[in-house]
Predict the structure.
Amino acid sequence: MKKFIILLLSIFLAMSLAACGNKTDSRDSSGKTEIKDAKELLTTVWNSYEEDEKFAIAGGDMTEENMTEDAPGTFGITDADELDRMLGFPAADAEKIDNAASIMHMMNANTFTCGAYHLKNADDVKSVAADLKENVMGRQWMCGFPDKLVVISLDDYLVSVFGNEELVNTFKDKLTQTYENAKVISEDGIV
């Protein structure tokens, strides 16, 4: 009987550890999630998608070295107006970030656009999140309207995603399931 209970407990422990295996949320001693850069953050989330959940994407900016197909890509931060035009990130806050990455729907950016931004100072997360939300919500849309905007914080990273509600919700769920520290700051319909 003892052997049976030990075996049962061993199986239970193994299953518990396996269930935790999908989390990539490793933290340093301060409790901060260890992420190399914004591109790694988006790549980790994108790789958590099942094949039937994925859709045609492009990543990065329009430069040859950063543009990617079917994967997230690095987005240059030197052109604040391009950050605003392509990702909805407020140009006035561009000096507060030191790297960025993006995922966009291959056919229509209003269907799905996601940007991840590493802030130089974690104290700026709330104010930049508010500016980002105001900037996206105040846009004049062409070629269709996105349904929803979600802004998420992850330590000193901000992630914004807007577009088709189902695609936005799936991304939000994948991000918050992948990273325990992820917190939804705002979730709004775009009218």
Observations:
- Confidence is low (pLDDT under 50) at residues 2-25.
- The two ends are 64 Å apart (CA to CA).
